[in-house]
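Exam revision sheet. Question 4 asks you to relate a sequence to its structure. Input first:
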Amino acid sequence: MGGPSLEDARTGTLPAEEVRRMFDRIAPRYDLLNRVMTAGLDIGWRRAAAAAADVAAGDLVLDSCTGTGDLALELAARTTAHGEVVGLDAAPEMLRRAAMKAATAGAAARFVDGDACAMPFGDDTFDAATVAFGARNLPDLDRGLAEMARVVRPGGSVVVLEITTPRHLRAFYRIWFDRMVPRIGGLVAGDGAAYSYLPASVRRFPDARALAARMAAAGLIDVRWRTMAGGIVALHRGRVQ
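Answer key, structure tokens:
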């Protein structure tokens, strides 16, 4: 089945089912493109997100919109074999690759096909929940944040790692995300439309301060954030009451 038109992708507001199909299509090249587009910096960003989750051996942790499982594996290294990480995603091909990576690494992680806006988990199930570069793909951001808060026990952490619009470096940002990223996606993945969706989805996503307010509205307390890579990436953390 074909992908979205370039015009549709440039709106950054594709229907949820189209987003799922898009990620399934690009799954074979997803990790490679992440490394290329970030010059490998995304590895350190995910490591920082795992540290912010403040988990320990024996904890049960959720990684929402897990994709190919890179953050889930970072978390599993901290929860060890005594705990477990559950990765949730709606794209089966991404989940398949995540499960293969976990099996190769011998990580205590399992992966579940599900909707991040209607999670198949009970209240207060997890010690922490994370999402890395997936929040902007949710059809209802507020619902997705509320679901993360719901499934985490009181006192646990909710961490959001996401691309954001920087206050500085705007010229570089526009050239890289609006022009180069779609071209790289077209060359490496053969899917320029999918990688036109990326900068468009970032443009419509709340900035760091607004995202913090949305997390607070979802019931989280002590919401704090810091930016990385010159303000292009924001790492937020809040606690469940």
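Marking note for examiners. The first helix runs from residue 6 to 9.
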